[in-house]
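Z., the sequence and structure:
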Amino acid sequence: MRATSDLVSRIFRSPDAIRRFSIGDWDNLIRQARQAGLLARMHHVLQQNGLAAMIPSVARWHFEAAAILSDKQQIEVRWEVQQVRAALAGLNFPLIVLKCAADVMADLPGARGRLFNDIDILVPREQLDQVESALMLAGWHTVGLPDYDQRYYRRWTLDIPPMQHVRHAMVIDVHHAILPESAHYHPDSAKMRSRAVAVQGLPGVAVLAAEDRVLHAATQLFYNSELTHGLLDLSDIDLLLREASTVTSFWTKLLARAEEMQLGRPLFYALRYARHFFDTPVPDEVDSSLVAAAPRGAILNLMDSIFTCALAPAHPGCENTFTPLARSAAYLHAHWLRRSPRLLVPHLFHKAFISPYLDNGTPKAA
């Protein structure tokens, strides 16, 4: 099931494999890792394993530049979260930071070598208007989107349109739910907020409990129609699992929470493909407990074919003739999970045939 041409996951599984690399292998590895957004994290892994000195001099600067960028972005994330916390200080709830920004704020292993596009926060839906107003007063504004996308965001998705400060580069995604209202399942985000853990030394800032961080990451990955950096998100899940599983009760809590939140299927996929790409250690009893959540027979084989292709680095060396079809299938699968056919068909039609021509007749990306 595993493609030998995927050098990135090969090195994460067995860092010592670089000892046998040719210059051509290093060239392919750098290209694949950069495409996957994992170049800085790979540099960190090689350092951890005492292998950084084995990177050829002609290749070393690629890794070091990515690591410097990661360090710079983490400083920016910490500063930006502080600004958001100050902007929302008048509202009566903690600022819950999600995903990779949560790893940075809580100083978790997933922050090492992580590159960022945005900061995600989770707020109560009933206070969404106050949150948006407070952020706008502090200088954030929604990133320019066509009217159709603005309406669609606000009615059918799990967040409002992305916001960016007039003076800052980092984008903020304000979430009010784990899945959109139109999805097949409706996990209660209030339950996740109720178990949020305060970040030590940062009053008013919190992150989700360990089991909820895993479930949220798994749901976001496998309900996401864009898997360009899917391997990066799966690497985040791998690191979350390795860190959280050092606590004896973690796996029991994770399974119970997945059943409570109706998220057994994305958890099953997350564990299956994290093990496939990263050899993530998962106890046998956990696999047995998730059998009921797994797709059956031919469907599982089909999903394996889709995700082992779609999650691999988007690089020609990792692709085969099935890859474009697999990515299209993953795209449709995510849309199907997030929307009923009544919403999905008109939305895809609009994005394919109307949106590209709304800007004064000039085609643009859908």
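The CA atoms of residues 178 and 220 lie 8 Å apart. The beta strands are 95-98, 118-122, 140-142, 163-165, 171-175, 197-198, 205-207.

Let me know what you think.
H.
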